[in-house]
Design a protein that fits this description.
The chain has three helices and nine strands. The protein is of the alpha+beta class and about 170 residues long.
């Protein structure tokens, strides 16, 4: 997290499991010391993600059901990160950092997410409907009072829906 006054941002970075289609420019293959695990230094793709609107999605196992949590974000430019030789994306959360983080935690959002410029919120809503799972979104319209109530309503709905399916 970059918590500068007036511009809170999130850094998404990972060594291996990042699709290079999100890269702003041609990814580079680089070898850097890992210093853990007693293995050879790994080859990794190094790149910065493109700027623009994107989605961050997390699939959460709630025991009796799954929840697909989606946050609308905007990827932004960032300073060079030479000591972080991995795939990197820096984004600003919608509606704002504080609200998005609180909603993410309230909904049980996971550490690992899917990130896309191509998939739309509507596509994920359709997927959730087809899969019969809950979907909740954090976007420009989100306020915590309504978000908490939506989570409570979803809890009741999915609890009752189990009885109707049996």
């Amino acid at each position: 997290y970059h918590l500068a006054p007036g511009g809170h941002q999130v850094l998404g970075a990972h060594m291996l499991e990042i699709c290079p289609t999100i890269a702003a420019e041609k990814p580079r293959l680089e070898i850097h010391p890992l210093s853990i695990g007693g293995k050879e230094d790994p080859v990794r793709l190094v790149f910065d993600a493109a700027k623009g609107p994107a989605l961050n999605a997390s699939l959460i196992d709630l025991g009796a059901r799954f929840r697909l949590l989606v946050n609308e974000v905007t990827a932004v430019d960032h300073p060079a990160l030479p000591k972080l030789p991995v795939a990197r994306a820096v984004w600003e959360c919608k509606p704002d950092f504080k609200t998005a983080c609180a909603a993410w935690i309230l909904a049980g959002g996971a550490h690992h997410t899917g990130y896309s410029y191509s998939v739309t919120r509507e596509m994920l809503e359709d997927f959730a409907t087809i899969a019969g799972i809950e979907m909740t979104a954090i976007g420009p319209e989100t306020n915590l009072t309504n978000f908490k109530q939506d989570l409570r309503n979803n809890d009741v709905y999915y609890y009752l829906a189990q009885g109707f399916r049996a």
